[in-house]
Structure formats: C-alpha cells, structure tokens
Amino acid sequence: MYFDGTFTVNVDKGRSFQMVQHNRYGIETELFWKGLAEGWETESISIWMELCKEAHVILDIGAAEGLYALVSKCLRPASRVLAFEPFALPSAELRGNISLNGYDIEVHEVALSDFSGEASFYATLESSNEGSLIPSPCNPGSRVAQRVRVATLADIIEREGLERVDLIKVDVEGAEPEVLGGMGPYLERFRPSIIVEILNDDVGRRVQERVEGLDYLYFDVNDDLRKGPKGIRRVPEIRKSVCLNYLLIQRPVASSLGIA
C-alpha cells in the first residue's frame, strides 16, 4: 500500500529522522511498514549504524533518497557526511529529505568513477533509484540516459580538503570497482570501512583487486531471509554476494565489532 507524505524512521534510543514517500514502491514503503530493523537491508544498516558511531567523515555513494546518509547524520550529528547522487529525480528527493530534517549533509550531484569529465548515466523509468554509468544493469526496455558530471574520489578528497575518510557505502549498480579505483592513493592511506554492492563475480574480483594488500577482511552480508539466515559471513575472496552487499573492514575494526 503506497502513499504520499512524510513519515518518521525510528533509529535507536529515541533518535529518529523523517523521509518523504512519493506514492510508489521503494525503500520508503518498506521502512514505513517494517521499520529500520525489519525493512530495507537490515543487516547492512545494522552494521552501518555501528560503524557510524566512530566515523568522522562518511561517504554515501549512490545515495538515492539518502537512507544511509540520513542514518549517519542522525546517529553522529558531528560527522561530516557527503552524499553522491548524479540522477536528477533521486537527487531532488535526497535534498528534500535532508531539508526536512535540517541536516547539513553535503550533496554532490556527480557520478564517481576512475575518470573525470562527463558520461551517460543510465536508469530505469520504473525505478529512478537504480542507475549506473554502465547500461547493462538496467532494463533495456525502459532505459533512459542522462548526461552527468563525473569525478574521482581523489578529486573530491582534494577539492573538499578531506584529511580522512572513515566509512563508505558504494551502491552504483556494477561500477563499484571504478569508484574504488578512483580513490587512488587515498584508499591505502585512509583504509575506510566499506559497505559495497557486489552483483556478480566479475565485480567482486575487480573490487578485490582494488583492496588486495591493504589488510581488509571480507564479509558477505545476507539481508534477505529468502537467501538463508540473515547475518554476515567471513569469506576468503569477494564474489557475487548471497544477497547484495559485502562488508570490507580492517582487522582492528572487525575486532571492535566482535567479528574478527
């Protein structure tokens, strides 16, 4: 059952934020009916919430309506949160959700990759929250393209004067290796905790190539009971996720979470 209007998302210990539903199925519908603990990407969000508590600089890449960014700012108001969403419609919804809560989340209407310039960004008419610089993940029957600005994470880090990056979510429908590759030397320097979508084995292998030698541990995250018991499972290599996401973290961080 869909609806139009504002609703509250409860986080923990009396903390909450608001979002706007736009009368269509999506993340907002699941959150309204099931809440944060039972709705969208429950295990990934739970891990993200723990990691937010000690994070000073947080990047939500492929932010869509801004769920991960909003959770970050709600839990850690003093953190610097940057949200990246190049597609016009979800970017407008993201800005609306930020304004609704009075948050100081920084919105960058730019796609991230391993090059700078312009490119075609592909999305579907039915789901404006799913898009990529790669056309293949989208349904060809309803694919639309929009020219967008493209930057590298190294560009952003230098332009914004970021002296650290602690936590990153990357959900860009198959272009995740290019996003991490575009971080350049800052990936090794900062070694942030990363929640990254891995839709197939090729993406997994290429993401692993970007982080190999940097002492990351790999955890496959299952957010869907239809795929088996929910939770995370440490694995020796990155391949297609049992659900959607992987958690990549340094061993000390894993120890602090009790999962090393």
Give your account of this protein's structure:
This protein is of the alpha/beta class and 260 residues long. The chain has a single domain, classed as Vaccinia Virus protein VP39 (Rossmann fold, 3-Layer(aba) Sandwich). It has nine helices and 14 strands. A hairpin with an 8-residue loop joins strand 12 and strand 13. Helix 2 runs parallel beside helix 3 (67-75). It is globular, with a radius of gyration of 17 Å. The relative contact order is 0.13. The model is unreliable at 137-141 (pLDDT under 50). It comes from Luteimonas vadosa. InterPro entries: FkbM_mtfrase, SAM-dependent_MTase, SAM-dependent_MTases_sf. Residues 60-199 form the Methyltransferase FkbM domain. This is Methyltransferase FkbM domain-containing protein. It holds the Pfam family Methyltransf_21.
Q: Any low-confidence stretches, pLDDT <50, length ≥5?
A: 137-141
The dominant shape is globular
Q: Please outline the major beta sheet.
A: 8 strands, mixed
Class, according to the CATH hierarchy?
A: Alpha Beta
Percent of sequence in beta strands: 25-35%
CATH homologous superfamily descriptor:
Vaccinia Virus protein VP39
What CATH architecture do you see?
Answer: 3-Layer(aba) Sandwich
The sequence of SSEs as H and E is: EEHHEHEHEEEEEHEHHEHEEEH
Structural class: alpha/beta
Give the spatial strand order of the biggest sheet. 5-4-3-10-11-14-12-13
Count, helices: 9
**Distance, first to last CA:** 41 Å
Task: Kindly state the percentage of residues in helix.
Answer: 25-40%
Total count of domains: 1
Mean pLDDT: 92
What is the chains' assembly state? single chain
Task: Indicate the CATH topology.
Answer: Rossmann fold
Radius of gyration: 17 Å
Number of strands: 14
Domain Methyltransferase FkbM: 60-199
InterPro entries: FkbM_mtfrase, SAM-dependent_MTase, SAM-dependent_MTases_sf
Protein name: Methyltransferase FkbM domain-containing protein
